[in-house]
Protein 1
Amino acid sequence: MRSGLILLLLLWSVTNLSGQDQEVMDSLRTDLELHAVGDSLRFNTLSQLWLTTLNNDLLSSVGFARQIIREAKITKNDEWTAVGNRVLGINLDYMGESDSALYYYTLARPYYRQTDNLLQSGVLLFNTAIIHQGAGRYDSAKHYLLLADSCFTNPKHLRQRSAVNKLTATIAREQGDEAEAVKYASSAFELAREAGDSARMADAEQEIAFAYQALNDYGTSAEYFLRSLKYYERTHDYYFATVSLINLATCYQAIGDFENAIQYGERGLTYIENGGMGDLEIDIRNILGNVYWSVGDHTKAEDQFVRAEKLLRKEEDRRLRGEVLTYLSGVQLNLNNLVEARRNGLEAIEIVTEQGRLELAHKGYGQLAIISRKRGDYEKAYDYMVLRQGFQDSLYRKEQSDKLAELTLLFEKEKKDRLISEQKSQLALLESQAEVDRLQKTALGVGLAALLFLLFAGGYSYQQRGKRQQLEKDQLAIKVKNQQKELSTHALQMAQKGQLLDQLGEELQQIRGERPDDRKKLDGMLRELNSEERIDTDWTNFRTYFQGVHGDFEERLKLAANASLSPRELRLAALIKMQLNNQEVGSILSVTQDSLYKAKYRLRKKLPAAGEGELDGYIRSL
């Protein structure tokens, strides 16, 4: 009933009075008589009487809910009529009368929708989703969850959004989409953490654990069950702590860590024995029996299975009883208690065969065959083995049939999806054609006039575009011509400057020889004249003009080379590209003709595509 209690706290804001305290009940009944029908205080008292009896006296609680509805209708009070329908729906939901609960939830919802009470609308939709989920109507449940989530947009409603995501995760897990379940459960956890709600965080962690358990990732599942267990034990919620312990035992059993499986199973059994949680005792004894069987402690395994079988017989749960009897027979066979093993095995076979549980029947007949062989009844042992083989064949056929059914389902789904897609495409095509026809009829008259206008406008536009393109070509030609002029001028200036500086350098050398006292000062001047920094500055300016005319020539040259090119080689290639003669190039680079020939030779070696004596022509063609 835990989920129901949480929902109730979401739905109701009045103070929850303690149990069936007679003094409180007498006080409320006395207070009720003091107020006339239709008085708001009387409605509040009725609601407190309803809440006080909800968990202990459902019939009285139903009576108070119906009284709220009756008196609200007499006084035409829409608000309290909605309240009465809502709380009566909760009562009927608790009592398992799902269809009636849905009816009263449906009656209550219009009032909250009309008054924009999003919280109550969302909770009613959420409760409706729970009922649909419990009945296996997953598509309807998800529909109502989406509607509920749209009501919880207020930042104060993080807890409610967490509940929506948690239930969505449960539905995804029940539908076999474990990855989707992990996603929504993780979202539920984050929302609960943001809201500071530790209880919902623990619930979300447990749902994440269930999803990983379904994915057979038992290690991760155990981590989340441990986290939820810590919270439940800290808050003394021993029912859900026991649920976590049962699942921890299951996870560690699957991993093969039987020591931890026994530890958590026995711990859960202690909570059950102290708290009287009989509905969980069967599960934990069944798990412990299997774990003790796995470690070879057949005596303890038999004890657990015997206790579980007694509880199942008392509760008349034949489905699980057939499973436990099969296990009990197997354990007693290991203990060599052949009489009891045979008796329990035969009863188990009768139950599981009736239920069509082939795996257990296959296991049971195998155990009966071994029991008969040990008792010396070889004819019976043979008969059981034949029956066992028959079930084994049935299992194989069932497996193949299941695979075929799965493939058929996938094929039918794919065919259905393709058919729907084709129908949508045809519908869209028909709609498009209808729209085209309509537009054609509408535009026919306008089109003729527009055609003449377009012809005139097109001719004028073409003429103007031609003029504009010619103007742009002329402007570009002028720009290129100016850049070429600037580049030639700059190259000439560099050549003249180089000659002047060489001449000045020679004169300084002569003066240096004639005036030894000024040698230090003259050496500095000579170094300044030959400094790379000055040369680099001149070439930087030159490169700017050069790229304006010849674009990415330098990049093309580098791609053509089979080795990296030095700055001096790049400069030499740029001057050749400008179609300068050797004398002009040597003057600009301040080198002799002999040094220039050597530099060209080294450059040609780095350009495989340049033939012997064809360096200048090759560079100018790039």
Protein 2
Amino acid sequence: MALEAGDTFGRYELVSWLGRGGMAETWLAQLVGAAGVTKSVLIKKVLPEYADDEAFISMFISEARISATLSHGNVAQVFDFGQVEGEYFLAMEFVDGKPLDKVLKRAMRSGMPALPIPVAVFIAMEMCRGLHYAHTRTDSSGKPLGIVHRDISPDNVLLSYEGQVKIVDFGIAKAQLLRNFKTAPGVVKGKYLFFSPEQARGEDVDARTDVWATGVVLYELLCGRLPVDGPPHVVMMKIAHGKIPPLNQVRPDLPEALDRIVLKALSPDPTQRYASSHAFGDALAEFLYANHPRFSSLSLAHLLRVLFRGDLLNEGRELAVPEDFLEELKAWRQPVAQERIPTVPHIRALKTPRQATAAVIVTREFHEEAPALPTAEVSPVRRARAPWVGLALGGAALLALGGGAWWTRFRNAPAAIASAPRAPVQEPARDTAPDAGEKVPEPPPPPPPVDNGWNETQVGKLLEDVYRLGKSNKDLPRAAKLVQTCVDALPDNADCRLAAGLTYERLRAFDKSALHYQTFLERAPATDIRRSAVSDRLAALPLRKPLEPTPASEAELESSRSAVLVHLTRGQLKEALDAATQCVTRLPREPECHLLQGDVLARMNQVSKSARSYERFLAFAPEDHPLRPSVLRKLVELRAAGP
């Protein structure tokens, strides 16, 4: 069923759509109890098209069974599991914060070479505590459940604004209680760059594979890069032979004691690693409190509040950060001198972030174009607010929440436009973020143009009507027509462009939304506090836009994808190849059918046939197909590995 913010879903009221990943989508929701008592939860719901996918539903139920037994401060708890109108869902703890991978990227964009040493060590230590709890869980008779996460990576770790560290997604965990859903021999799951050597070989794994993955995460947090990188066959070969560069070769300021701790966790031989996550956590705790005795979860909370201050302001929140922490932060922002970093054969050189252009961040499986650095300063601002600030913060809150509530926050913004004084002429917008410690000047109000017979009052009244109509999904088309009137009459008005971008995004007209967001960024002054949030929303639009297969073949293609996945999950490579070949036979010009066939053939080590399938994908796929870069990489890797 199609859901919208404000809908009732079982016992829950949906607040805002958070995202779609793989075969499930997530929503922020509220459990409404008696006497108006509410509790925020995260709803993870299987997408309707996968409701009949036996393998995926089994995996989803497995996640519910495992996660529901876990109750620990470092594990996101599952509260509820069930079906609504035939659709499975999980209701789990909502962590008010950010994923670890986004925290690392934001830290590096703000001028840090990587995460500060005590922060990285503390996060890994807390991960170890949560993992050890899961590893040692027993059933009612005291028999160990044998839970292993097997998918530990930065995007499965959440950090809260209160300094909590939470592990999520036990969806592919292995437990002896799930005897009917064990990984088939030779089938590996998760992210290969975090695989332990035994996991990469498709062997049975135990808790020490999570020790390895936690070590990889800690390495990345400390060095700003992974210990090994590249295509799967290259990565597997390096980790199998223990080709892990010492951390202090990559980041010379790291203590030798910490280097030894991490490299022990990354021993290719499981018997040489820490015997448990508890032992690994104890070693990290000993190092942390011997060298940084005052560090605590509050230190982590302060760092997140500084790094994401712009996001919080966009939501109408301003969390306190003490001045002494800001002084410590200045030292953390000093990058290691480039001349002190030797070249390491197994790792790409770390590039110093540039201010003038957006940085290209090398991530685990793809290259991501990072958004421009935020223009808002991170240090706390304590000033009396002029009337126009209400407009700025209201617009920021509008951007951040994505549900009905943000329309209310922004409703009174037009009044601020009408009452604000005229702004002086703005100097050209700059693309760079202010230096640490630099005070951001108060931005002048962005007055709407008065040509074409329009004045501030008329613009304010029109936008008020747009935001009022935008509260209701059924009135969104009317809001779009109204805001288009503003855009047509005043094409250079930043407020009209922002309202249009938000309206079209809610209508899922993502191309139009992107056009208006881009124009807003071109027209709004560099000091406009809303710019950072608009940039983030613009960058996220391609992820929300669904891929568009040939309309006539969409159902057929989806059926083929599902069939191939089921067989691969069960280790049935021949059956998976048959399903992919049927897709090619029925839809010979559909590029993704050839991609499915190529992927299965690659798993079967039929290099030349796999390469031909990938070549056919490239022949049929349009130039802007989002999967072209990854298929090109696969083809290059196959040719390099082939005879």
